[in-house]
Specification:
heterotrimer; A: about 120 residues; mainly alpha; 4 helices; C: about 400 residues; alpha+beta; Alpha-Beta Plaits; 2 domains; 4-stranded mixed beta sheet; globular
């Protein structure tokens, strides 16, 4: 499994580094969870990507704004999908919802349908 | 979904069947009792057994292990699982030994039962305490109330002792568990302890509660604390002494005196078996006779003298016999 | 046992008490699709009600990761397994949902937790978790996989999962109330809030064992059980800033993900809901049927309604929310104009919204949603408090301000 690596930055150089701990089955504080098989025909990435895109699109978000959610690594859920499946996959999901992107359309407004301009704000 | 987690708390059909058998047995007793009750057949006192409260000539104190208690006979009162109302259960204690005496206008009742484990902490969701209770009709000389919590017109008075309340209430996690760590409690006023704020008796540290009831679900602790109780565990058995002054402290509590004939029933809980509330071992009502018969004198010194004397005579005799034997 | 009507099951069922007086019922809709498990709700509750000695493991509000986590551990899987054991092969739904407040999800033919307890020593089927089981209030896929000298590692999600936000359901037929041998638990007719009388409670923990959602908890420093009180002073309008009208609970009002909307619905004597489509909770539960009860098959008629997560496997969701899942997700993924507007009213005000109106607006954009072309309108939605005063007015299209990168800093 791919893993993010997060480093703690405690107060001092050697101060309070977290101690290493291997799994102990008898430890009552050891976390115990339930796992379930993902059904074979269940494309999680597609379902998640569509959820993200449609949730925001229904609130008036534009295509370029949504594309940024995938590109920025700080949006872990969407960015993971981009890393895992590639930009073409993300674009295909966006295409499905917004219609095919016009090449070179920087602002993306053309593909966002008949969105009225909001006074004083730029929606994406 | 099929879960991947096995659970040992699952009740099985086998347990349910066992319950039905058990219920069938006790239901017979309950039906007989109910019919007698409805028919107005109210014995003045129950006839299963009589506990005599002997008259003591010195203050027995609250120690169940010593003094006059060894000199009066115990009455073995059989116990069964409570099976009249939900939740049923509790058959861990087959019988209790009941003794009683009175001194200077004070009734003392001693209850002893086998229990190899001490459960005197309820500081945990699955921890339950050993406990015992004695129950009296609210008024002496009236008809006998229903065994379980009485009924609307004839109540009961219950004195309950609990091992955990006698041991006291730990106030914080670290106090109960030396390894426990709590970062910080920003506020610790009584408002954050709603039970304490409204005077719930379990938040006090007293060992005994005095309760009145007139039917299921009506059990209520009195605001006053006229009952004392103290328990001692000797490694295999609990012995608990209850005491209260003769005059009735208030409504729903019997007025006692020398010459009173009333009834007493006993309940006991084994915390190890998660007994609590209706899950308990209960007795029927037995008679309680507060008489003028004195506590038998302490014959221990005479027995010792006789034993030592007998031994001495025996040794002398053996020596003499050995000497004169050719 | 009395017979009562449970509309979530579409049938009568056995319950120890006949229905009492009912006027209004505390209810809420939680939109699982929008929860990010920030636990702000959890901390709002904890810092208000349960920060005293003896409440260390007590979270009246918690957010857990499904299916992995549970607070207490495996609470739902354990009870489902017990129910399956006691009612083998019987935990099934029959019939189809009708446009009827009396049986919107069809009929549940299996046994409830009250019915499987028949012939046992208890009134309700349940179990008492031990203290260890309460020690991981949000044990989930987000938890660090390994602690080492270099730091902690966080997993990257590859499976499906979702967050489940849980408070007391203030059930119409509470299992805690049914199991209490002390008559120490009561349900208020004016708002349906279920409370434990701290004076009468004797700490038997029958409610802890009976509550299927495990939202009654034992407190060792008072030797009594405590539970979510639905922030009742706020519901009663006692808070000075609410001007006498009901205010949302602390957990609802603090939700930064805007996933929660709380309400009070009018109920009939048989605990069905009085027709009131202007009430947002009624509208989502009974008109759109987009929000569903949690484990309705347990039979307590819980009153927190969930918009199910659209990406999770349906079989799992059907077990959790009943047979209404597919229709609910369909409604949510491609919402009606009115529902889309109403979703924007979530967390728009701290007052409890008793009625809402939608004012039509211009076309915003055209999309393909759920494989169908549709138009999004920038409608305006207005919410009204208990006195009929306007307390919120928002639009469908979220205003977005893009700041230059140079000042894009918190």
């Amino acid at each position: 499994m791919a893993e993010f690596h997060v480093t703690f930055h405690p107060g001092g150089p050697a101060a309070a580094a977290p101690s290493a701990k291997e799994l102990e089955a008898e430890d009552p504080y050891e976390l115990v969870g339930l796992t379930f098989e993902v059904p074979p025909d269940h494309d999680v990435d597609l379902l998640m990507a569509r959820t993200f895109v449609e949730e925001y699109a229904l609130m008036g978000y534009s295509r370029p704004a949504l594309r940024k959610l995938f590109e920025t690594p700080f949006y872990a859920g969407t960015h993971d999908i981009l890393v895992r499946r590639g930009p073409a996959y993300v674009d295909s999901v966006l295409d499905e919802v917004f219609g095919a992107e016009v090449p070179g359309d920087e602002a993306g407004e053309a593909s966002a349908g008949a969105a009225p301009a909001d006074e004083g704000t730029s929606r994406g | 979904m099929r879960t991947t987690h096995a659970d040992d708390d699952t009740r099985t059909g086998g347990r349910a069947r066992r319950w039905r058998r058990r219920l069938g047995l006790v239901a017979t007793v309950a039906v007989v009792g109910a019919v007698a009750h409805i028919a107005g057949f109210q014995p003045a006192v129950s006839q299963l057994a009589t506990v005599n409260a002997y008259k003591a000539d010195a203050d027995p104190g609250m120690d169940p292990s010593g003094g006059p208690w060894a000199r009066i006979p115990g009455v073995a009162v059989p116990m069964t699982a409570q099976a009249t109302t939900y939740p049923f259960g509790g058959d861990a204690i087959p019988a209790v030994d009941v003794r009683a005496l009175h001194y200077n206008g004070q009734l003392f009742v001693r209850v002893e039962w086998p229990d190899s484990s001490v459960n005197d902490s309820t500081f945990g969701t699955t921890l339950f305490a050993d406990a015992a209770a004695v129950q009296f009709p609210a008024a002496t000389g009236s008809k006998v109330p229903a065994l379980c919590m009485g009924q609307a017109d004839t109540g009961v008075n219950i004195w309950q002792w609990r091992a955990d309340t006698e041991a006291g209430v730990p106030q914080t996690l670290p106090e109960e568990d030396p390894d426990g760590v709590a970062d910080h409690y920003p506020i610790t006023d009584d408002l954050g302890y709603p039970a304490r704020y409204v005077g719930n008796p379990f938040d006090s540290t007293g060992a005994a509660q005095n309760l009145v009831a007139e039917g299921f679900g009506t059990l209520t602790a009195t605001p006053e604390h006229p009952v004392n109780a103290a328990g001692v565990h000797d490694g295999n058995r609990w012995a608990v002494v209850f005491s209260r002054a003769f005059p009735s402290p208030g409504e729903g509590q019997p007025n006692l005196t020398e010459g009173t004939k009333t009834d007493i029933a006993v309940a006991a809980w084994n915390g190890q078996h998660q007994d609590r509330n209706g899950q308990k071992s209960v007795s029927q009502f037995v008679s309680l006779d507060i008489g003028d018969e004195p506590v038998p004198p302490d014959r221990t010194p005479w027995i010792v003298i006789l034993l030592v004397g007998g031994l001495f005579v025996g040794v002398i005799a053996s020596v003499v016999v050995w000497r004169i034997t050719p | 046992m009395a017979k009562v009507y449970n509309w979530q099951l579409g049938r009568e069922m056995e319950y120890p008490y006949a229905g009492g007086d009912r006027e209004r019922q505390f209810a809420a809709v939680f939109n699982i699709n929008r929860c990010i498990a920030c636990q702000t709700c959890t901390m709002a509750c904890k810092s208000t009600w349960t920060h005293y000695p003896g409440q260390e493991l007590m979270f009246w509000n918690n957010v857990e990761t499904k299916p992995y986590g549970g607070y207490p551990r495996s609470w739902d899987a354990k009870l489902l397994e017990m129910q399956e054991t006691l009612d083998p092969g019987g935990q099934n739904w029959a019939g189809t949902g009708q446009a009827d407040v009396r049986s919107p999800y069809g009929r549940f033919d299996g046994k409830t937790i009250f019915e499987t307890a028949n012939g046992t020593s208890e009134r309700v089927t349940g179990y008492l978790p031990d203290d260890d089981e309460w020690k991981a209030p949000n044990n989930g896929e987000d938890h660090g996989t390994k602690m080492g000298p270099d730091g902690a590692k966080l997993p990257v999600h590859q499976g499906w999962f979702f967050y489940l936000q849980r408070i007391c359901n203030h059930c119409s037929y509470p299992a805690c109330l049914a199991a209490c041998p002390r008559n120490a638990i009561y349900k208020r007719k004016e708002d349906g809030i279920v409370l434990i009388d701290q004076e009468r409670c004797r700490g038997y923990r029958k409610c802890v064992a009976a509550c299927p959602y495990k939202k009654s908890m034992y407190r060792p420093t008072t030797r009594t059980s405590e539970k979510c009180i639905a922030c009742y002073p706020r519901i009663e309008g006692q808070d000075p800033i609410s001007d006498g009208v009901p205010m949302e609970t602390r957990c609802m009002a603090s939700c930064i993900g805007k996933i929660r909307m709380q309400g009070l619905v009018q109920v009939e004597a048989d605990a069905t809901w009085t027709h009131d489509p202007r009430n947002p909770i009624y509208y989502m539960v009974h008109v759109e049927k987009v929000a569903l009860p949690l484990y309705p098959q347990f039979g307590t008629q819980p009153n927190i309604y969930y918009i199910p997560p659209r990406w999770a496997p349906r079989e799992y969701l059907r077990q959790m929310f009943g047979p209404g899942v597919d229709a609910a997700i369909e409604k949510y993924a491609n919402p009606s104009r009115e529902l889309l507007a109403l979703l924007q009213l979530f967390r728009a005000t701290r007052e409890v919204i008793f009625a809402f109106d939608v004012i039509p607006g211009p076309v915003a954009q055209t999309l393909n949603v759920g494989g169908r072309s549709r138009t999004i309108y920038d409608d305006t939605v207005v919410g009204y408090d208990a006195k009929g005063r306007e307390v919120a007015r928002v639009k469908v299209v979220e205003p977005v301000v893009t700041r230059p990168g140079s000042i894009n800093s918190i």
